[in-house]
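Deliverable D2.4 — example input (structure tokens):
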């Protein structure tokens, strides 16, 4: 029931909602704020913008140069069966962050719960629209 039109429309929206959750709201995939457990020199340098190619962001967000944020996006083109989003270059960095307790995605929780519920709601609405309104027809069989 879901088709290419749906995936073309919803893919970029899901990508943007994920970006907002992880990078702008500074929350992990489970909805918890990222830890501020940094070494003091790193924390000071990041808050003062002393790194080369530094991109201003919330202190706890996994953004220093912006490379990880910019690399996250649509991978390939959507198809009739879905769409892919992720990192095409910086996937190794995602794994390194996971080891530090800064989880951006897991096989069990690929997207934040709010993004999953948004996707589910949109899919349900699209299917309902395609099927049309529910109509009940009653037939009487037998004597009058």
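Example output (designed residues):
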């Amino acid at each position: 029931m879901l088709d290419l039109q749906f995936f073309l429309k919803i893919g970029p929206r899901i990508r943007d909602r994920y970006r907002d959750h992880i990078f702008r709201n500074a929350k992990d995939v489970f909805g918890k704020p990222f830890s501020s457990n940094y070494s003091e020199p790193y924390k000071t340098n990041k808050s003062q913008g002393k790194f080369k190619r530094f991109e201003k962001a919330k202190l706890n967000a996994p953004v220093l140069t912006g490379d990880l944020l910019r690399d996250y996006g649509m991978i390939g083109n959507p198809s009739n069966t879905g769409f892919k989003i992720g990192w095409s270059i910086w996937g190794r960095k995602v794994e390194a962050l996971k080891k530090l307790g800064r989880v951006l995605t897991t096989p069990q929780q690929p997207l934040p719960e709010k993004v999953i519920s948004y996707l589910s709601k949109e899919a349900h609405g699209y299917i309902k629209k395609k099927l049309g309104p529910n109509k009940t027809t009653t037939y009487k069989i037998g004597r009058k």
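The mean pLDDT is 87.
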